[in-house]
Amino acid sequence: MKHSISIALFATTFLSAPVLAEDASDAPENEAIIVNGARPADYAPDDATSATRLRTPLRETPATVQVIDKSVIADRAITQPRELAETVAGVQPVAGYGNTPSQWFVIRGFSTAGVNYRDGYRLAEIYTPRDFANVERIEFVKGPQSVLYGQAQPAGAVNTITKVPVAEAITRFEASAGSFATFRGTADINRDFGAFAVRLNVMGQIADSYVNFEESESYLIAPSVRVEPVDGISLLYAGEYQRTTIDGFSNGLPFAQGVFDLPASATVSQPWARLDNETVSTRIEAVIDLWGDWQFKQGFYAAKTNRDYQGVSPAFNQFDGTPLADYPVQYNAGPQDDQFNQVFRSEAYGTLETGPLTHTLLAGYEHFRSRFDFGFYDQFGCDDAGNCFGGYTRSFSNPLPFPPGGFTGGFFDSSGARTDAVYLNDQIAVGNLRILAGVRHDWSTTEASGEQSRTGAATGRFGALYSFTPQVTAYYSYGQSFVPNIGLRLGGGTLDPERGEQHEIGLKIAPKPGLDITFAAYDIAKRNIRARASATEFVTIGAQASRGFEATVAGTVTPRLQVIANYAYTDRAETTADINPLRVGNPLYGVPSHSFNAWGRYDVPLKILGNLAIGAGVVAIGERAADNDGSGFELPGYTRFDAALFYTIGKVDLALNLRNLNDAAIFDTVDGFFVQRQAPRSLTATARLSF
Fold first, then answer.
1. Which residues contact 433 (CB under 8 A, 6 or more apart)?
2. Highest mean pLDDT among 238-252, 323-337, 356-370, 397-411
3. Which of 46, 373, 522, 640 is 20 to 30 A off residue 64, Cα-Cα?
4. Mean pLDDT, to the nearest integer, of 510-517?
């Protein structure tokens, strides 16, 4: 095994084991929380920023917002984004290509299409692996969020909030070891010098895999600096570098009978397959006090991913009765798979009074541009004997060795987008009533394969919430979304943008401080979905819809018991219009009718030195379509059980996490194209030290 991760990093982390003492990023996103032994009730945080871009109490927000805080991340030993779906209602993971730590989800029936947000900035990162070593918390905002975030699917926004300098000293180290020869170390160091604060997060990980031929290594470095040169001005720099390599890289398994009976180690890959992914991001922000509580914020975010791979994929995603052994495989390579995006954003926000109304206003301008440059080879060259090989010449049971001729048959292309937008959001408070209203207008230019499309679109949102008592509130919300369509319209001109809208009603109940119960029912419709009408022209005739119900309980049940439990029922998630009438009624991929998950932590009342706690969880997912084509190929449902044991003594926390206790066979879809097996039973031991 070839592992080149820094020995110094692992020596540091393994000689000093970390603690569950919690850190925090500073305002406006987070508050400092220090944890020793029994911890505060942060399974149900009081507020979030992603729904309004300002810190707003969740009980006063007319929308469904679920926050996965750092305590849940630590207790469940979450290290990659897709594992978040196990603690949120109505959310399913989409496996990354090569089973990488994907940031892709299906929310309320709709794919997020790889659109992500980091500290409120939109990312053009479709395939980029991300680690949680530098993550403070994650906020899921359900439904359309175009008013504040621009072009996106109507499913919802997933915003990752990273760690930045805070007004305290933090020195924390963590080391873990687990199944599949996984070894991981992290460090989090923060120092505050008054008007100057610095923070550094680092991570290193090496692992084999339950999949044949596969082994990986990853490391991350994330420095950040906050400076207050004068009163009323705050400057922030936050950088992040992550590199991930995977040997034995595979894009998954075929849509074929018998694939679910294969052992967890089964793969179409070969030892020579490899993925190399390098991501660099920079965030710079300035916050200036104006007058009263008004502030001006200027932000800049840029991220670039360089990625190349050579691997093996099932040749197509058709479920047509082809036997598994005969299913064709495609040997391909992406020598260039690079993504870049850049965001400039200017915002002013504060409050004002108009008679009995209190307005919290936010007005902004955003400039976003992105680019995706890619190359693709799907054939082999010729060997010394003059034998040439096509990309589809061998089957699942009869793979082809890597010939000396390498890859040929390639093409290179690029796509990109540029958007300028203005937006205004108003949170109105009067008595027991809260109203949320916003509008945004985008001017967008997109380009793909030499074709260019210019689109202008306005989107709006409205929500109203009423508090019947301090413990019971009800709300209604409406939101719109849009995404530009690329290509030439049949008959001439450009394509109308894809549009979406959601209606939602909900009830929020707080039976006691620190415990929240939420019920929500929604109806989402998406129209103007692009379909090819000829070799070079398209029409926007497609439509999709989803409808369902969600319930969540989160927080402190007793002083010793914290829980998160979610149930989602999807009554409808299907194609409602298509250029091919036979596709109408096809279910959307990755959407079960019923899903349930629950996790709890209980501090055991034993008279021992230190604090002992146990954790237990369950994830139950029903059958779901593997693609949008109505092929009838379905991913099987499953029920998975997890358990954990925690022991805290002084500044040392020890944890033992057992995942998939019952060794359930779990399969996800890779963007509706391939099947990806998830991990069988696994064990992780973690030690944490803070001083």
1. 464, 465, 466, 467
2. 356-370
3. 640
4. 94
Alpha carbon of 53 to those of 143, 334, 348, 491, 516: distances in Å? 16, 37, 11, 42, 22
What band does 381 get if pLDDT is binned at 50, 70 and 90? Answer: low
Q: Comparing C-alpha atoms, which of 606, 660, 562, 556 is closest to residue 74?
A: 562
199 secondary structure, DSSP code: E
Element of type H or E holding 147: helix 146-149
Q: What is the largest CA-CA distance in the chain?
A: 87
Name the domain count of the chain. 1
CA–CA gap between residue 190 and residue 193 (Å, rounded): 10
Phi, psi of 99 (to 5 degrees): 60, 30
Question: Please, are residues 352 and 338 in contact by the beta-carbon 8 Å criterion?
Answer: no
Which of helix, strand or coil describes residue 127? Answer: coil
Cα–Cα distance between 377 and 382 in angstroms, integer? 14
Question: Chain-centre distance of CA 171, in angstroms?
Answer: 28
Instruction: Identify the three-state secondary structure at position 491.
Output: coil
pLDDT digit string, tens, across residues 657-679: 999 999 999 999 888 888 888 99
| Structure token pair of residue 180 | 């599949």
Q: Which residues contact 604 (CB under 8 A, 6 or more apart)?
A: 560, 612, 613, 614
Three-state SS letters, 19-74: CCCCCCCCCCCCCCCCCCCCCCCCCCCCEECCCCCCCEEHHHCCCCEEEECHHHHH
Q: Please state the rounded mean pLDDT for residues 487-515.
A: 89
Q: Residue 152: phi, psi to the nearest 5?
A: -165, 160
Please state the three-class secondary structure of 311-359 as a single string: EEEECCCCCCCCCHHHCEEEEEEECCEEEEEEEEEEEEEEEEEECCEEE
Q: Is residue 89 part of a domain?
A: yes
* pTM attached to this predicted model: 0.89
Domain that holds residue 364: 7-690
In a domain, 363, yes or no: yes
Q: Say how far residue 228 (Cα) sits from the centre of its chain.
A: 32
CA distance 360 to 417: 32
CB count in 10 Å sphere of residue 193 = 9
Residue 516 domain flag: yes
Residue 488 confidence (pLDDT): 77
Q: Residue 332's pLDDT is what?
A: 79
**DSSP code of 494?**
B
SS3 of residue 84 by DSSP: helix
Contact 110/3 with Cβ under 8 angstroms?
Answer: no
User: Would you say residue 2 lies in a domain?
Assistant: no
Neighbour count for residue 454 (Cβ, 10 Å) = 12
Residue 8, classed as helix, strand or coil, is helix
pLDDT digits (tens, 9 = 90+) for 257-303: 899 999 999 988 888 889 999 999 999 999 999 999 999 999 999 99
Spatial neighbors of 193 by CB under 8 A, at least 6 apart, are none
Instruction: Determine the Cα angle at 482 with ends 106 and 463, to 5°.
Output: 80
**Short-list 588, 464, 568, 583, CA closest to 525:** 588
Please give the Cα distance from 485 to 452 (Å, whole number). 10
CB 500 within 8 A of CB 526: yes
Task: Write the DSSP string, 559-621.
Answer: TTEEEEEEEEEEEEEEEEE-SSGGGTTPBPTT--SEEEEEEEEEEE---SSSEEEEEEEEEEE
How far apart (Å, rounded) are the C-alpha atoms in residues 247 and 362?
47
CA distance linking residue 462 with residue 474, whole number of Å:
14
> 197 Cβ partners below 8 Å, 6+ apart?
165, 166, 167, 190, 191, 225, 226
